[in-house]
Amino acid sequence: MRFDIITIFPEMFQSPFASGVLGKAVAKGLIEVLVHNLRDFTEDKHQQVDDRPFGGGEGMVLKPEPIFRAVEKVRLTQAAEVVLLTPQGEKFTWQVAEELRRARQVILICGRYEGVDERVAEHLATRELSIGDFILTGGELAAMVVVDAVARLVPGVVGKEEAVRQDSFFRGIFDYPQYTRPRDFKGYKVPEVLLSGNHDKIRRWRKRKALEKTWRRRPDLINFQELSVEEREILDEIKKERKGR
Fold first, then answer.
1. How far from 17 is each of 21, 27, 138, 143, 230, CA to CA, in Å?
2. How far is CA 140 from CA 114, 119, 143, 145, in A?
3. Dist CA 100 CA 103 (whole Å)
4. Active-site residue identified among 152, 171, 212, 231
5. Residue 81 is a catalytic residue
6. What are the pLDDT tens digits along the chain (245 aa)?
7. Domains of the chain
8. 39, 69, 101, 114: which one is catalytic?
9. For this structure, is 212 an active site residue?
10. Running DSSP on this structure, what letter comes out for residue 112?
């Protein structure tokens, strides 16, 4: 799978994709990450990528011409996903990451300043994405987040496929609490059930804790129809207990 990132700060991407899981994925050829300097697609001697907004207003706006040229240059096929990173975009979720993972190529346009000429969104981008309800200084960090989230869904990138299937958002249920040594840290002890050796009790405890955390923090994620019979029973128990408090 190939990611093309269009930015005016290409140096920001030197380290994130050279280490860790993504670095190994790049080395193995499972993913390809290419970073393009938007200024290379300008045609004036000053390499101008921004200009003042029509109608007045503060700040500068990224011009459409170099962005269109960049996308047209790096796009392999018309089927490529062209993503404009903007606070005004749809929320980036696990489901969106899975949709992007199915594309052969994802082109990420990093916004800056007061924004990007609207013609990019209207006539070039296939979708606009936001990683949250907050404002960043630019789309570069958002691009890193999207690449990381999408790349780990590519077969082979994460060592064990089961680890991906157990992710919090794969089934809409948060992960269960994890503990490791020491058993007692400053008086904070590991739950006894995890030391019992009773695998059935451990499995049910983990399901309960995962459902408790999800129901408490993000009940909107839970799809009751997709729960197993046992999970439905556990969730019913949790609801009754909370009502009784």
1. 9, 10, 18, 11, 41
2. 15, 20, 5, 9
3. 5
4. 152
5. no
6. 999 999 999 999 988 999 999 999 999 999 999 999 999 999 999 999 999 999 999 899 999 999 999 999 999 999 999 999 999 999 999 999 999 999 999 999 999 988 999 999 999 999 999 999 999 999 999 999 999 999 999 999 997 665 665 565 667 899 999 999 999 999 999 999 999 999 999 999 999 999 999 999 999 999 989 999 999 999 999 999 988 77
7. 2-161 (3.40.1280.10), 184-243 (1.10.1270.20)
8. 114
9. no
10. B
CA 57 to chain centre: 32
- Annotated active-site residue 204? The verdict is no
Which one from 39, 87, 148, 208 is the annotated catalytic residue?
87
Q: Which of 119, 167, 204, 208 is catalytic?
A: 167
Question: Residue 170 corresponds to which tokens in the numbers above?
Answer: 């794969």
Could you confirm whether 66 is annotated as catalytic?
Answer: no
Edge-to-edge strand ranges of the sheet holding 32-37:
32-37, 2-7, 105-110, 81-91, 127-130
